[in-house]
């Protein structure tokens, strides 16, 4: 009887896992279809980055098997564990959280993209620590577009100077700009913030910098971001669901 109970529990658990995986794939497919439609309307390729912070490697593997390649992580230690668990995949890892100096080496050695460069010191560390046998690390400069004291990123007026410094570093490839819009913004305010980002990218291009990326837009505002020029959107909750608070 006890053995039968264990067998029943096993199959119930397996069925629950399968149901959750199917739901995750459905949610991802809905977002993927929406981004593809908005991309077509904008006549511009848009990369969907699935923001997987706080979710387990099994969820990431499920979406990777379904066809998702770009994943965004905020917490370096958590990302390291996931990277180890998923070392057999061709996932493209995007670091979208703040990088402390003592964590820069692991990022330089293993990430494909960093979206959150906001100071010369971290840019130089990433360049110096990037292994020479790897291609240059793709980086974006983070802009505090909402002028929020609690957020990272540089002021819009400081973008060009930092961009020129980063572009000159040997093992980095400056790709463009990244921002997080103010959460309480109206539609008009979102449009203003994202349009300013597009203008800043044009400023870099006019200065002769080979930049082509605007990383902006998340679950709640990606439609507005894409309409205003986004090339990469970072979507978490619409794909994975709501996160438990991080301890």
Q: Brief overview, please?
A:
Helix content is 47%, strand content 16%. It is an alpha/beta fold.
Commentary on this structure:
This protein has 247 residues and is of the alpha/beta class. It has a single domain (2-240), classed as Alanine racemase (TIM Barrel), CATH 3.20.20.10. It has helices at residues 2-42, 57-66, 76-85, 104-110, 120-129, 159-167, 187-206, 222-227, 237-240, and strands spanning 47-51, 70-73, 92-95, 113-117, 137-143, 172-179, 213-215, 232-235. Strands 7-6-5-4-3-2-1-8 form an eight-stranded parallel β-sheet. Strand 3, helix 4 (104-110) and strand 4 (113-117) form a beta-alpha-beta unit. The longest helix is centred in the first third of the chain and has 41 residues, at 2-42. It starts with a helix and ends in a 7-residue tail after the last helix. Mean pLDDT is 92; it is low at 7-16.
Mean pLDDT, to the nearest integer, reads: 92
**Can you count the beta strands?**
8
The fraction of residues assigned to DSSP E strands is: 15-25%
Q: What is the strand arrangement across the widest sheet?
A: 7-6-5-4-3-2-1-8
Radius of gyration: 19 Å
Query: CATH fold name, please?
Result: TIM Barrel
CATH homology-level superfamily: Alanine racemase
């Amino acid at each position: 009887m006890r053995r039968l109970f264990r067998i029943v529990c096993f199959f119930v658990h397996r069925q629950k896992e399968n149901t959750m995986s199917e739901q995750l794939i459905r949610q991802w497919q809905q977002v993927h279809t929406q981004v593809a439609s908005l991309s077509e309307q904008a006549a511009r390729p848009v990369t969907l980055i699935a923001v997987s912070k706080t979710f387990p490697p099994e969820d990431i593997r499920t979406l990777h098997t379904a066809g998702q390649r770009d994943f965004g992580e905020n917490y370096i230690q958590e990302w390291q564990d996931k990277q180890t668990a998923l070392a057999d995949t061709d996932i493209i890892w995007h670091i979208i959280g703040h990088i402390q100096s003592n964590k820069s080496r692991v990022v330089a050695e293993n990430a494909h993209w960093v979206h959150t460069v906001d100071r010369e010191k971290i840019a130089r560390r990433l360049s110096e620590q990037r292994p020479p046998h790897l291609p240059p690390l793709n980086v974006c400069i983070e802009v505090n577009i909402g002028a929020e004291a609690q957020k990272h990123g540089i002021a819009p007026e400081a973008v060009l100077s930092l961009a020129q410094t980063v572009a000159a570093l040997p093992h980095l490839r400056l790709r463009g700009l990244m921002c997080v819009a103010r959460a309480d913004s109206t539609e008009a305010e979102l449009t203003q913030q994202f349009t300013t980002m597009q203008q800043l990218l044009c400023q870099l291009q006019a200065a002769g910098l080979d930049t082509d990326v605007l990383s902006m837009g998340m679950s709640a505002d990606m439609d507005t971001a894409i309409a205003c020029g986004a090339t990469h959107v970072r979507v978490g909750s619409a794909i994975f669901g709501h996160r438990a608070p991080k301890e």
